[in-house]
Design a protein that fits this description.
This protein is α+β, with helices and mostly antiparallel strands and about 325 residues long. About 30% of the residues lie in helices and about 25% in strands. Helix 3 crosses helix 4 and helix 7 runs parallel beside helix 8. Bound molecules: oxa(dethia)-CoA (UT7).
Length: about 325
């Protein structure tokens, strides 16, 4: 599915925040748990460490600080929100939704709230939906949160997955704006590839141990990822008649440095325009893109007027890109 943003109604990000749990797990620590090594993990993934939620932290606990930072940057309170969408595959529980729990903690008494599941692409899907709701005039102020506590659904004896993933969350506020904002989206899904990254024992088909842990065919996901990062970026740029050279800040899903390098080279994006923090956080699923955006804001790369390209991909299999002019802060 390809979605062009409306040219007559604009919406943008007015606030951004992120949070990662304090506990750091290094490659060295993982090599005490499974048969792996710091060298292997760095060479094959580029990951050096990741954050893991404390026992008492559930998803809503790590979304809350990210949401508060995003609201404060937008100059809003929870009570100002019309809608909260949390993209995740690890909600606190199946119901109530984590969004509803978050709304309560933020004092967002007037907000509709629901969770959205699109694997690691969840944040991109949620941003596109929020844009659509704002552009349709249904809501004015939306909080979109992407976050996951994947550490809870990993098999800690499976070296093919534990080395990759970490916990974290990020949040943005979307509001109508005089200027764009969001320019274009491109979203897609291929359920035929679903079995390459799945949590089989987690729902109405089967709810059982030990199938309640993530299972992944790393090579297949790798092939899919390198293909869609390139195709989706080109599709969203084509919609606007823009070229790769126009992109100032490229924020790919933080899955693996090799995947990002492959896409960056194929697209021809200079490495100084690419945001990478997978070395410090691992793959945080729905948290990945907003955590990377927040890093780029802190290091000064996200400035008003800059063209930002984000592409997510993950379980489903799903993918999604957004192209936008950043509108917060001083001009570039
Ligand atoms: O949001 C999307 C989430 N998922 C992904 O992004 C995953 C995409 N895939 C990948 O990132 C890579 O496929 C991996 C990092 C998972 C694996 O890297 P690879 O270069 O594709 O390795 P491989 O699966 O081809 O395995 C190579 C070898 C195997 O041993 P043999 O069969 O050659 O003897 C594996 O058993 O490496 C072995 N291996 C490990 N060795 C040490 C697999 N995991 C590990 C490990 N430490 N953690």
């Amino acid at each position: 599915m390809i979605t062009s943003a409306r040219s007559d109604v604009h919406a943008t990000i007015t606030g951004l925040g992120a949070y990662a749990p304090e506990r750091v797990i290094t490659n060295e620590e993982l090599s005490q748990l499974v048969e792996t090594s710091d060298e292997w993990i760095i060479e094959r993934t580029g990951i050096r460490e990741r954050r893991i939620a404390a026992d008492e932290q559930a998803l809503s606990d790590i979304c809350l600080p990210a949401a508060r930072t995003a609201l404060s940057q937008a100059g809003l309170d929870g009570k100002d929100l019309d809608l909260i969408v949390v993209a995740t595959v690890t909600p606190d529980m199946m119901f109530p939704s984590t969004s509803a729990l978050l709304a309560d903690r933020l004092g967002a008494a007037d907000a509709a709230a629901y969770d959205l599941s699109a694997g690691c692409t969840g944040f991109m899907y949620a941003v596109a939906q929020a844009y659509g709701m704002v552009a349709a005039g249904l809501v004015q102020r939306v909080l979109v949160v992407g976050g996951d506590v994947l550490s809870r659904i990993l098999d800690w004896s499976d070296r093919s997955t534990v080395v990759l993933f970490g916990d974290g969350a990020g949040a943005v506020v979307l509001e109508p704006s005089a200027e764009p904002g969001f320019l274009a989206f491109e979203l897609g899904a291929d359920g035929g590839g679903g079995e390459h990254l799945w949590l089989p024992g987690s729902g109405s088909r089967l709810f059982a141990e030990p199938d309640r842990f993530v299972k992944m065919n790393g090579r297949e996901v790798f092939k899919f990822a390198t293909r869609v990062l390139v195709d989706s970026a080109r599709a969203v740029l084509d919609q606007q008649g823009m070229r790769v050279e126009d992109v100032d800040v490229y924020v790919p899903h933080q899955a693996n440095v090799r995947i990002i390098d492959h896409a960056t080279k194929k697209l021809g994006i200079p490495s100084d325009r690419v945001v990478i923090n997978v070395d410090r956080y691992g793959n945080t699923s729905s948290g990945s893109i907003p955590l990377a955006l927040a890093d780029a804001q802190v290091d000064g790369r996200l400035r008003a007027g800059r063209l930002v390209l984000m592409t997510g991909m993950g379980a489903g299999l799903t993918w999604g890109s957004a192209l936008m002019r950043w509108t917060i802060g001083g001009a570039a």
